[in-house]
Amino acid sequence: MAGVTHILVASDLTDRSRYPLMRAVELQRENAARLTVLHVISPNSAQHRASHRQAALVALTAHLSEAAPDEPRRVAVEALMGEPVRTIVGEAEARDVDLIVLGAPAQLEVDAKLGKRASSFAGFDGS
Question: The domain containing residue 23 runs over which residues?
């Protein structure tokens, strides 16, 4: 992947988010890129508070240690509060990210909400 210098991987802190993290670490190594590992806490979540943010940072760091025990460098770990799609895209733009790595949603049902989120990500490149 020529030209990839910064990768962002979004994690929902579940076991299924470990594969995208491992793939992002692999891509980071292949490209000598920076990596941002991000968890977004929805404002509608009952866990929307500072204690959840701290717990999320601990969990993200643990997942990262499992995926890349020898890669503590060039990695930023963030847990932010906000609407997930907007926050992920906003962070990618603010950090000049070249590639976003995402996992599959919890439910693979194709409904209006999933379609809206998918199209939000598809439009990330400005097209």
Answer: 6-125
